[in-house]
Amino acid sequence: MFLINCPFCGEREQSEFKAGGEAYLERPKQPTELSDDEWAEFLFMRKNIKGVQFERWNHAHGCRKWFNIARDTSNDQIKAVYKMGEKPPVK
Amino acid sequence: MSKNLRFKSSKLVDETYRISFKFNNKTYYGYKGDTLASALLASDVHLVGRSFKYHRPRGIMTAGSEEPNAIIQLHDNTSRTEPNVRATEIEIYEGLVASSQNCWPSVNFDIGGINNFLSPIIPAGFYYKTFMWPKSFWEKYEYFIRKSAGLGKSPKETDPDIYEHKYIHCDVLIIGAGISGIIAAKMAAKNGLKTLLMDEKSFLGGSTIYDNSEFSKINNQITSSWLEKEINEISKLENLEIKTRTSVAAFHGYNFLLARENLTDHLPISQRENKIRHRLLKIRSKKVINATGAIERPLIFDNNDRPGILLSSAMKKYIDLYGVACGENNILFTNNDTAYETAMSLLQRGIKVNAIIDNRVEIDSKLSYEVEKNNIRIFKGYTVVDTYGYKRINGLSIMQLSKDGQKVIGKKIKLSCDSLGVSGGWTPAVHLFTQSGGKLKFREDDQVFIPNKYPSDQLSIGSCNGDLSLEEITTNTVLSVKKFLNINNTDYKTFEITTGINKSKRNIWLLPSDKILGKTKSFVDYQNDATAKDIKLALREGFRSIEHVKRYTTTGMGTDQGKLGNMHALGIISETAGTKMGEHGTTTFRPPYTPLTFGTIVGRNVGEFFDIIRRTPIHDWHVANNAKFENVGQWKRAWYYPKANENMHQAVQRESKAARDCAGILDASTLGKIDIQGTDASEFLNRVYTNAWSKLAIGKCRYGLMLNEDGMVYDDGVTTRLDENHYIMTTTTGGAANVLGKLEDYLQTEWPELDVYLSSVTDHYATISVCGPHSKKIVSKVIPDLDFSDEKFPHMSFKNTKIGQIKCRVMRISFTGEQSYEINIQSNYGKSVWEKCMEAGKDFNITPYGTETMHLLRAEKGFIIVGQDTDATMTPIDLQMDWIVSKKKYDFIGKRSLYRSDTIKDDRKQLVGLLTENPKEVLEEGAQIVADIKKSPIEMLGHVTSSYYSPNLNKSIALGVVKGGKKMLGQKLIIPMENKNINVTVADPVFLDKEGERLNAKL
User: Fold this and answer.
1) How far apart are CA B414 and CA B431, in angstroms?
2) Phi-psi region for residue B628, left (φ > 0), alpha (ψ -120 to 50) or beta?
3) Nearest neighbour of A58 by CB, restricted to B741, B897, B901
4) Which residues pair with B420 in a beta bridge?
5) B254 to chain A: which residues are within 8 Å by CB?
6) Range list of β-strands (E), B724-815
7) CA distance B459 to B286
8) Distance (Å) from the C-alpha of residue B748 to the closest C-alpha of chain A?
9) Residue B433: is its pLDDT beyond 80?
C-alpha cells in the first residue's frame, strides 16, 4: 500500500485516496468543433506506459483536493507529488 | 510405549508439566513446550495424514512452517474447528483434539489409497485430460472429484473467537529472531532506533539457539551460550519490542507489512475465555531487515515420502530442542555437511545412527571425522535408490553414483532403519523479499537464489541472504547492518568462529535410480503429490514456462506454497530443458507466507461492524413501526411497513394505493445533498447538467440529469435555487459521494476559474416527503403560517419557513407524480417533525411507505432510477428523455458524445414500457426480451429493468430496455422464462397520468 504525501495534508495511507487516471488530459475547450476521431482521442485513448507516469489523485477521505503524482509504474515508486497547475518536478 | 524416544532436554520442554491430548481419537501425552509434532514423534507416531492425490501414507517431514504433510484438523468440545493446521507449529495444550485430514474412513485404512495403485494412469494433468469428454459431463465428474479430494473441513458455525487489528509504526522492523536478527536488533536498538523484532516461533534464537556442540564456538564460547547472553542483553533494551509467535504474512510495497500475532493458541482452552486469539498487525516501518533464515532442501529419490523420512535439520531440532528422537535406528542421507551435525546430536545422546549416505566422494570436515571415530559407516559417493515400508519406513537400498552423478552403478546394498533424515542443502527463505517486489539472482556455486535488487528501504541478512556459514552470518550481518542503519559504533568487533563443518556440497536435483523414471515415485511436492516424472511429462508435452509447469503439475500450489520442493522443480526443468537455472527465475511467491484464518483478516469487522451503517434521524420510528429495511449503499432505508399478517406484496400494494388515494409519507433523508455557493454557481450547473440553469428563478426547483463525458447518464436529482449565488443539489442515495468527487474534479482541474464552493450536507438535514391528494392539508396543519396555495406555492418551487422556532425548507417536488411536499429540517428535529406529520395526517389515512412503494409509484409514472433502469450504457436519448437535453447550450459534460457515430444509432437499447398479455402476470426484473424464439441462436433484444403489479392501474407494468425500442410502440415481444414464454406489448413508459394533472389535483 502506497504512502502518499498529499501536498495539503502530508503523508497518508493510500486507502484515503482515489486514483484519477492519467494526468494532463485537457478537456477540449470547444468539443463541438471536434471530429468523432478527435473526440475519441480525448475520451478513450490512454498511454498506459511502463515507467514514470503522471497521474491525478484525489484525497477523497481527507481534504478532497486533487493533485498530481509522478509514479514509476514498473515498481510503484512515487517520484513526485505536486499541486494541480504546477509543473512536474521530474521528467 | 515400547520405544524410548524421549530424552532429557534442557531447552524448550518442561518435563514437570505433562499435558494429555487426543489425536485420531487416541489419547497421548506430551510436555509443555512440545508441538503436536514433537509430542506425536515422542509417542512413535509418524503417520499423520494421507497425500492429496494418491492418498499415500505421510508422516511429519519438518519442524516448522514449511511442513507439507502434517496438516491436521483441530477441534475442541464446542463448535470450534480449524482445518489445515500444521502439527509442527501448534503447541500442545490441555484439551487439544486433533485428527488427520484427507482420509476416509481413517488414516490407517484409507479407501482413497487405491489411487496409489492406479497412479500409473493418473499422470499430471489427468483431470484436465480425462474429464473433458464429453464436455457436458464435467458437472457430474466434478461432484465425485470434489468429494474425494480436498483438505480439511471448514467450520460450519460462526467463529466464536475474538480477533483484532493493530497499527504499528517503527524505525526498523526485523523479521526473524535467529542469530542475525538478534545481532541486528541489538545494533538498531542500541543506536536509539525504535525497533521491532518478530519471530514465528515461541522462542528466540532460531536454529542457532540449540547449536550447542563443542565444535561450534563464537569467541571461544559454545555458540548457543554466546547467543543466549545476547538474547538476555537485548531483552532489556528500551527501544526494542520483541514479538514471538508472530509471523509476517505479507510484505507489501512501501514497507507495509501484515503480521499475525498468535496470542492464545498455545494456552489451555480454559484460559482462553474472553481473550483475543490473533492480532493482525499492520506495520509501517521506515526500514525493514529480513532475517528469515533458510529452509533445508529434501532430496528427490524413489519413494522419498514414506512416514519416518524427515529433513535432517528437523531431526536435529527434535532431539536438541524437544528431546525427542525420531527413531531408534536412524540413517542420514545428505549431499553436504549439515547432516553430520544431526548425527552428532543423536550420538551424544546414545541414539543409534546406522549409517550416513553421502552423495559426495570427498568429505573433509572435522565433524565427519568425528562421526567416523564413532564407528558410523559413511557411504561416500552413494545415493538412496529406494525405500521400504508402507506406513513407516523400515529400510532402504543404496547404490554408488557414477562420476557425473547421472547414473547408479555397482551393487545394491540394503540397510535397515526406522527413520531417515535427508539433507539437500539450504534454500534461503526469500519469500517475503520477493513479495515486496525484490528481484533475485542465482548463485551458481551452491545453486541458490539470493536477493539482488531491493524495491524499498530494506536489507536481507544471514542465511536468507545466502550467508550459510556461521562466519559469514556473523561478520556480514554486522557489516551490512552498520551500513544500512548508518551506525558508527557497535559492540561487535570481530568474531572468532570455530565450526566442525564446511560448505562443500554435491548438488543433484533428481537423483538417479536403477529403475526407469516412469517406474519411480520421486516426490517434488509432497502436499500436492507432484513427482519428478510429472514435471518431465509436462516438459515433454510442451510446457516451458515455470509458471505453466507449476499450474499443470500443481507443484508448489499447496498450503505450503512449495517451500521445500520448488527449487527441485526448477532444477529438474532446467536440467531437462538444457537451460540455465537463473534464466527461468522462480514462480511468484504470494502472500500469505503461512495461511491466515478469515477471523484474523476481518478482525473486529464482523456482524454489525462488517461495514459502516448509516441510519436516518427517523430510523428509530421506522423500527418501532415494524419497518423492514433495505440496504442502499451503507444506508438502512425503510423498505416497507407490514401490518399484522401482511407479506411484502400486500404491504406494498396497500402503501401504494394509500399514497395515491389519500396520503403517503416517505423518509427521503438519504438522498445526497450538496450545498453549492459562489458567484459562478449558475454557470457551473449549466456545465454539469444537460439542461439550462441560468434562467431558473430564485425559489424555484428543477430536475437535472448529469452525464459522464462519454454521454452516458451518471446521476439525477432536483436542484433548488435558494438565492442568487446559492443552490442545493440533491443526488441519488448511492451516488452522493461519487457526484461530489466528480464535481470537485471538474472545479479543481478543468474550471479552476469558476468561483464555486461545494459542501456535502447530506447528514445535516432530515427530509420528509408527504405526498398524495391530502398532502397539502397535512403540511398546512404542520406549518400553519405558510401559504400553501397553488398560486403562492406552485409545483417545483421552494419556501424558507419555520416550524415553531426551527428554520426549515419546504420544496414542492414530486417523485411519485402526486402533489407532494418535501420538508427539510435540521437532522435532530427530523423525528419530531415526522411524528407531527403523522399526527396531522391521522384523519387522512396518512400511510408511511418505504422504498419498494416509492419504486412502484415512480414506475407508474415512468420515472427512471439511475442504476436500475440505466447501466452506464444509456444516453438521455436512449431513455426517451430528449426533452431534458438543451439544444441551445454550447457545451455541457457529455454533450459531444451524444452525437458520436455510436450514440446516434437507431438500434441502441432504448427505454420502453412493457405490458403483459395477462395483466396479472408480473415479469421478473432482469429477464431477457426477444422477438423470435424460433431463430437459433435467439437474438437478445434487451431486458426488463423494473417490474411491478400496480394496484392503482390494476395491472402488471414494467420498464425495459429494447434494441430500437422507441419505434416499436405496440409491437409484440416475448419474455422467455424457464417454464413458459410470456407475451408482452411495447408501451409508453408513462403508465399513469401522462398529463400530470395529479400534481395539482384537488380533492
Assistant:
1) 39
2) beta
3) B741
4) B309, B331
5) 1-3, 76
6) 726-731, 757-760, 765-771, 797-803, 806-812
7) 12
8) 7
9) yes
- Look at residue B820 and give its three-state secondary structure: strand
Give pLDDT tens digits for B152-201.
788 888 888 999 999 999 999 999 999 999 999 999 999 999 999 999 99
Tell me which H or E stretch contains B824: strand B820-826
How far, rounded to the nearest angstrom, does the alpha carbon of residue B298 sit from its chain's CA centroid?
A: 31
B441 by DSSP, 3-state: which?
strand
Among the partner-chain residues B256, B745, B890, the one whose CB lies closest to the CB of A20 is: B745
In B833-937 the beta strands, taken as DSSP E runs, fall at 846-848, 909-916, 928-929
Distance in angstroms (rounded) separating the CA atoms of residues B310 and B326: 9
Query: What's the average model confidence in pLDDT over B796-823?
Result: 96
Which one-letter amino acid corresponds to residue B791? E
H-only helix segments in B598-712: 598-602, 619-624, 648-661, 681-688
Cell of B778: 397535512
Please tell me the predicted confidence (pLDDT) of residue B552. 87
Could you tell me the three cell numbers for B334?
Answer: 545428505
The DSSP letter of residue B699 is T
Q: Which three cell numbers stand for residue B49?
A: 495424514
Q: How many residues does chain A have?
A: 91
Give one DSSP letter per residue of B579-624, joined into a string. Answer: --HHHH--PPP-S-SS---HHHHHTT--GGGSS--B--TTHHHHHH
- Burial degree of B651 (CB within 10 A; 0-12, 13-18, 19+): buried
How many whole angstroms separate alpha carbon B594 and alpha carbon B62? 15
The domains of chain A, with CATH numbers, are 3-83 (3.30.2270.10)
Where does B418-522 have alpha helices with state H? Answer: 431-435, 470-485
Q: Do B752 and A84 touch (CB under 8 A)?
A: yes
| CB atoms B744 and A30 under 8 Å | no
Q: Is B924 helix (H, G, I), strand (E, B) or coil?
A: coil
Q: How far is A39 from chain B (nearest CA, A)?
A: 8
Cβ pair A2:B896 closer than 8 A: no
B90 and B170 Cβ atoms separated by less than 8 Å: no
Q: Please name every residue paired with B426 in a beta bridge, in sequence order, or none if there are none.
A: B296
Chain B residue at shortest CA distance from A26: B750
Residue B243 bridge partners (DSSP): B198
Q: Does B749 touch chain A (CB under 8 A)?
A: yes
Answer yes or no: are the C-beta atoms of B310 and B420 closer than 8 Å.
yes
Confidence of residue B149 (pLDDT cuts 50, 70, 90): low
Residue type, B925: E
Cβ distance of B741 and A60 shorter than 8 Å: yes
CA B448 to chain centre: 31
Residues of B in contact with A65 (CB under 8 A): 748
For chain B, list the domains and their CATH numbers: 14-116 (3.10.20.440), 163-294+428-498 (3.50.50.60), 307-422 (3.50.50.60), 611-891 (3.30.1360.120), 905-994 (2.40.30.110)
Closest A-chain CA to B256: A1
Alpha-carbon span B669 to B622, nearest angstrom:
13
The CA-atom distances, in angstroms, between B247 and each of B202, B280, B461, B864, B895 are 11, 10, 18, 53, 55
Q: Is B256 on the interface with A (CB under 8 A)?
A: yes
Which among B896, B903, B905 is the top mutation candidate for probing chain A, defined by the most A β-carbons within 10 Å of its own β-carbon?
A: B896
Asked if the Cβ–Cβ distance from A66 to B749 is below 8 Å, we say yes
Q: Taking CB atoms and an 8 Å cutoff, what residues of chain A touch B905?
A: none
Q: Measured between CB atoms, which of A2, A26, A32 is closest to B254? A: A2
Q: Which residue has the cell 427530523?
A: B830
B921, with CB counted inside 10 A (0-12, 13-18, 19+), is middle
pLDDT digits (tens, 9 = 90+) for B735-754: 999 999 999 999 999 999 99
Report CB contact under 8 Å: B890, A58.
Answer: no
What average pLDDT does range B111-119 have in this prediction? 67
